Amino acid sequence: MKKKDAIDHFCGDHKLAQALGCKPQAISQWSDLVPQGRAYQIEVLTGGKLKADPSISPQQPTPRV
After folding, report:
1. Torsion 39-7-19-24 (CA) sign
2. Of 50, 53, 51, which Cα lies nearest the Cα of 10?
3. Tell me: the pLDDT tens digits for 12-30?
4. Are 6 and 16 in contact (CB under 8 A)?
5. Which residues contact 58 (CB under 8 A, 6 or more apart)?
6. pTM above 0.85, yes or no
7. Which are the contacts of 33, defined by CB distance < 8 A and separation ≥ 6?
8. Is the CATH code 3.40.50.720 the one for domain 3-45?
9. 62 φ, ψ to 5°?
10. Which of 11, 47, 52, 53 satisfies CB 3.0 to 4.6 Å to 40 for a cystine?
11. Torsion angle (degrees, nearest 10) of CA 8, 12, 16, 22
């Protein structure tokens, strides 16, 4: 799920943060994609209007060996 789509659906990052029970600063730290756990939460909050897609999740840093 794209961050912009979630923000647009909730009419702003402050309202999205309020719906998720977090601060807007947390949302500003997301990449262009919503973190997977939050994407599923947004899917539930929107009644499925926005869908979490496990095939497109933010890149996780590669652990150094």
Report:
1. positive
2. 50
3. 999 999 999 999 999 999 9
4. yes
5. 30, 31, 33, 34, 35, 36
6. no
7. 1, 2, 3, 39, 56, 57, 58
8. no
9. -80, 125
10. 52
11. 150
